[in-house]
Design brief:
Blueprint: E1 2-8, H1 28-35, E2 40-46, H2 60-69, E3 74-76, H3 84-87, H4 93-102, E4 108-111, H5 120-131, E5 136-141, E6 150-151, H6 157-165, E7 171-174, H7 176-179, H8 204-211, E8 215-218, H9 221-229, H10 232-241, E9 246-247, H11 260-270, H12 276-291
Parallel strand pairs: 1-2, 2-3, 4-5, 5-6, 5-7, 7-8, 8-9
């Protein structure tokens, strides 16, 4: 019954686009073959539009083409670079958002532009997203240049400013520099990693969850799973406390990817560490509500 809040894919209509390291995005067919047997009934699929992310950019139209081919499995998200439309903070990005929303896109993501949260162009994108009632899934970078993701400092002061400035915008948090902030002992050197050990009180991410109801948690990838599994006692309590604002996801992108979060949640339910209500909310019910399914 899972709804995956975070997946990347490519269509077979385009030639193979391998990165220099050899990886490539999976096709919808490969994703279905891997995820459907594990109980995933639908996946939110993102376009790679920010040039910082890698060697190739991808259009929203490609995601829409996949959704048209597999409407019961692919849930399309739009993605918009804040530098689109003449690279100005006055760009009417709302026109683009309404166009893609009318074509079935359910949110915006994954936003990976390497700009600080208070860059006027990024704030323009967030303002239009708020006005058009669209959630924004974001990736954070530990610094500018040489990384992809929105630039923020240790303690996430930029994200907090955005949460405060756009109180009606639903922010779906993702990436190592966000989830590593679950623990209060995080260092600058470890921000872009997967820290282990017990979670120490005072983490910025936990404080922001408690203070800002417009902050939602995308549990995909190793970063989200690490935040709830590194200290299982903390993780189960975290899932329970924020059961209405957390979302199952895999960040599945390559056919070789594994999906350990499914085993983690299934085992947590089986052993009684989380209730069935918590399991269902995180697994699919929160996504149904957020996406209007």
């Amino acid at each position: 019954m899972f709804i995956d809040i975070h997946v990347h894919a490519r269509t077979f209509d385009f030639p193979e686009r391998n990165a220099p390291g050899g990886g490539r995005y999976a096709t919808p067919e490969e994703i279905m073959a891997k995820l459907r047997p594990q109980g995933v009934r639908a996946v939110c699929t993102f376009a790679r539009v920010n040039p910082e992310v890698g060697w190739f950019v991808q259009s929203v139209e490609e995601v829409l083409a996949m959704a048209e081919r597999y409407p019961d499995f692919i849930i399309p998200f739009m993605n918009i670079d804040p530098r689109q439309c003449l690279n100005t903070p006055d760009a009417d990005l709302g026109t683009l958002m309404r166009h893609y929303k009318a074509r079935g896109c359910k949110g915006i993501g994954e936003v990976c532009c390497n700009l600080p949260w208070d860059d006027p162009r990024l704030e323009n994108l967030l303002a239009h997203a708020q006005d058009n009632e669209l959630s924004v899934t974001f990736h954070i970078a530990p610094k500018q240049f040489g990384h992809y993701g929105i630039v923020d400092a240790l303690g996430l002061p930029g994200l907090e400013g955005a949460l405060r400035k756009f109180p009606w915008l639903r922010f779906l948090a993702h990436s190592q520099p966000f989830w590593a902030e679950i623990s209060g002992d995080l260092t600058e050197e470890a921000r872009n990693t997967y820290p282990g050990g017990r979670v120490v009180q005072g983490g910025a991410a936990l404080r922001l969850f408690r203070q800002y109801e417009n902050l939602l948690g995308d549990l995909s990838a190793g970063s989200g799973l690490n935040a709830i599994s590194r200290d299982p006692e903390f993780g189960y309590a975290f899932l329970d406390e924020f059961q209405d604002r957390l979302f199952f996801g895999t960040d599945f992108a390559d056919a070789r990817n594994e999906t350990p979060i499914i085993d983690f949640l299934n085992e947590a339910l089986r052993q009684g560490h989380i209730s069935r209500e918590v399991y269902e909310k995180i697994g699919w019910r929160n996504a149904e509500k957020l996406l209007g399914l």
